[in-house]
Amino acid sequence: MDPVKRQYESYPYPARDPADEARRLVEGSPSDPIEIDHFLFRGRRDWRRPFRALIAGGGTGDALVMLAQKLADAGCPAEIHYVDLSEASRDIAKARMEARGLTATYEVRSLLDAPQIAAEQGAFDYIDCCGVLHHLPDPSAGFRALGEALAPGGGIGLMVYAPYGRDGVYPMQDALASLLGKDAPEVQVAMAREALASVPETNGFRRNPFVSDHEASDAGLYDLLLHSRDRPYAVPELLAELSAAGLAAVSFLEPLRYDPAPHLPATPAFAERLKRMTPAERWALAERLSGNMRMHVVYAVKAGREGQAMASLSAEAVPRWGGPDPRALAAKVQAEGGFAITMAGLRHRVPIPKAAAPFIPALAAERSFGEIAKAARMDWFAFASTFGPAYRALVGVNLLHCSKGLGR
Ligand SMILES: C[S@@+](CC[C@H](N)C(=O)[O-])C[C@H]1O[C@@H](n2cnc3c(N)ncnc32)[C@H](O)[C@@H]1O
């Protein structure tokens, strides 16, 4: 049996109990439908139309359950197809769906078969592939398969590991493999825990504050440190894989984390050099400077459509607020000209002009930006220039998206 399949039969990932569906919905990125609408369908998709989604390597079902539940709540006629190599993972994913009265089709099958599935049943409007491609023997074949299975106007939400935030993980994986590689999985897990407790404080893994999956569960420890096949992607490598598969990135998440400017001196000399860089060069620079990215979440589309996929500030766009009480944020912006937010262990100061503060509470009111401007008795151009910097900042930290058809 393939060692990766064997691992996920023994340790379905992430560890989930279907009984927990009665008390909470696991949410995250990629694959929240409002994010999908914002980044892939300009925030204008008509969700009354059928929506075909593939959950590729769906594991124990986090993305499957979130997508299915939210689309069911929105009354969207969605057809969701789940594939994974692991029967044990499929069983848990299916039980979680059944606990909620949700349906999908399930196959214990490789995502490399996505083009055949699409040819037989129809191309996919959306493909989720979270934490899978970096485990394939030939990841490029996986990227290509997903690209081929995608409908021309559709999009993909991906997560792959990133190298610099995983400092220390790979030497530790090699160390444990050399020690325990021939042992049974349960022995590996138990002895890895003992070994971790005794490595010196100079050990790179021990010094890395960004990785903690091994503390959550045995499945997490196995996934992080005992994996038989796992490679990370720096931004340029990921973009090259997408490009070779006929795909292109629309946006990384959170967008602000991929802006290198806050990590550099705010002088004209640096600003001038940053301005000369392409977006891809800036994303790569942000990754190299920040050092805290342990994964990349990226929304991608067929190459050529990347400039037309994402929502923008327009009178028709309907904002969807994804944060805590927007009135409290408005008060903070009014008082301080911005706010602070911690993402992946790094505190970011997010400047927002005070003049935009009065509009922030309206972002949760389910009204279009045009209606918000009208209520403030402002013509569209005055509103857009006052609110534009706030729009970019709030989308940048993933608190604000646009979707005409989906509410929170
Ligand atoms: C780290 S888990 C991620 C699960 C899920 N996507 C999530 O984010 O919670 C990786 C999953 O990919 C599956 N997998 C690995 N190679 C695969 C392949 N070629 N086709 C389908 N699934 C695969 C594994 O069985 C495992 O369930």
Automatic annotation (TrEMBL):
Q: Where is this region: Disordered?
A: 1-24
Family matches, as SUPFAM superfamilies: S-adenosyl-L-methionine-dependent methyltransferases
**Which Gene Ontology MF annotations are present?**
methyltransferase activity
User: Which is an annotated Pfam family here?
Assistant: Methyltransf_12
Q: What keywords appear on the UniProt entry?
A: Methyltransferase, Transferase
Q: Which GO terms describe its biological process?
A: methylation
What is the protein's name according to its record? Answer: Methyltransferase domain-containing protein
Where do the Methyltransferase type domain residues begin and end?
56-155
Q: Which organism is it from?
A: Albimonas pacifica
